[in-house]
Amino acid sequence: MVNNNQEQMKAFQNSVAMTVTLISFGMLFATLFLGYFLARYNAPVWPPVELQDLPKFLPLASTFVIALSSLAYYMFEKVEQGKGKFWFLTFGLGIIFLVLQWILWGELKVRGIYVDNGHFPSMVYAFTWIHAVHILMGLATLLWLGRFVFKKNKKHLLTQQKIINVGKFWHFLGIVWFLIYLMMFVL
């Protein structure tokens, strides 16, 4: 009985810790969004000359990939058998997302869009770089979770709370990317 209460308390603490982490990351991105909206609101012309040649396909492909990755993680959360294949799919799509971001940064340079071209191009890079760092953190949490999925002697340690907490972070990153995509590349 005492052991069960301790496990429940630890799960609650971990859930609170992940919520606080997501709130702080959310505040970081909210601050970036606010700065972007203020700069855009005060821009005399939209889109500014520096952003008129932004690539459209790569950000759309990235959005599709991260949405599939979030769906794969959702399936990982729901299935009892075969979690490994959904873990691999989630992780692989996360890697593909980062590769697409790398290609996007190269395409920006080919089109003459550099960080030092003004505050709007620097904002595009800032959003995508900061998001990519968070994707790397998400991939690290997936690797940590993978220890429990694939090691037979640790499978009993794969708790639903661990799966939920990593899922909160992974889905959060998908939502943030969708907002970045809409704000930077569509609207």
* Pattern of helices and strands: HHHHH
- Given the C-alpha coordinates, what overall shape results? elongated
Number of strands: 0
Query: How many strands, what sense, and barrel or not for the largest sheet?
Result: none
What is the number of helical segments per DSSP (H or I, 4+ residues)?
5
Q: Kindly report the CATH topology.
A: Four Helix Bundle (Hemerythrin (Met), subunit A)
Structure description:
By secondary structure, the chain is mainly α. The chain has a single domain (29-186), classed as Four Helix Bundle (Hemerythrin (Met), subunit A), CATH 1.20.120. 80% of the residues lie in helices and 0% in strands. The chain contains five helices and no strands. It has helices at residues 2-42, 57-78, 83-110, 119-150, 160-186. The longest helix has 41 residues, at 2-42. The radius of gyration is 19 Å and the shape is elongated.
List keywords for this structure.
single chain; 187 residues; mainly alpha; Four Helix Bundle (Hemerythrin (Met), subunit A)
Brief write-up:
By secondary structure, the protein is an all-alpha fold. The chain contains 5 helices and no strands.
SSE diagram, text form:
Layout: H1 2-42, H2 57-78, H3 83-110, H4 119-150, H5 160-186
Helix pairs in contact: 1-4, 1-5, 2-3, 2-5, 3-4, 4-5
